[in-house]
Amino acid sequence: MHFIGPCVTIFGSARFGPETTHYKNAEKIGAAMAQLGFTVMTGGGPGIMEAANKGAFEAGGYSVGCNIVLPVEQNPNPYLNKWIYIPYFFVRKVILVKYSYAFVVMPGGMGTLDELFEALTLIQTKMISGFPVVIFDTEYHKELCHHIKIMAENESISPEDMNLLFVTDSVKELVNHIEKNSIKKFGLIKEKYTPRWWYGETR
């Protein structure tokens, strides 16, 4: 997977279909990330994952999936330029994190929260760089954000850890945040002959 270039990983539920607002928002975000020049990476399955890949694919971007082998939800969606099958969740999470310069968390379930807190923990403990983490949809995530605030108030996390999250309902705000905190921060430069961004130094 080393050749896919800088990615934005988009997390979200497999259970939201094309008729839902969550799916449509994920399509818009996938397209926006592709237009910025990023490869869009997801878990490769249906729902939010499919929508993000679809948005990127139809916008002319590069779309990849890390598909978990399960009795259900294991088939790759049809909007992938490349996908791999992974038998273990922990390996899948490593790959979803390794190549990404930003993380977008869409509405999801237990797996999505696992992925969110995995990314946050790695950033908090400085195991990886301070890549932007965006939570999309304030209404869906309001109790989650409230609980994170309670953790800060009770000093189980540091007050500055609240700054690791950016919460929004706006695709435009999301794009601006990633431009500032990923493209500019890490010096990503678009190559002349490719629609994607490539980092000039070893990550």
TrEMBL record:
Species for this entry: Flavobacterium keumense
Keyword ATP-binding (UniProt): no
Protein name from the UniProt record: Cytokinin riboside 5'-monophosphate phosphoribohydrolase
The family this protein is said to belong to: Belongs to the LOG family.
EC number of this enzyme: 3.2.2.n1
PANTHER family: CYTOKININ RIBOSIDE 5'-MONOPHOSPHATE PHOSPHORIBOHYDROLASE (PTHR43393), LYSINE DECARBOXYLASE-LIKE PROTEIN (PTHR43393:SF3)
Enzymatic reactions: AMP + H2O = D-ribose 5-phosphate + adenine
Annotated keywords: Cytokinin biosynthesis, Hydrolase
Any Pfam family matching the protein: Lysine_decarbox
Family annotation (InterPro entries): LOG, LOG_fam, LOG_family_nucleotidases
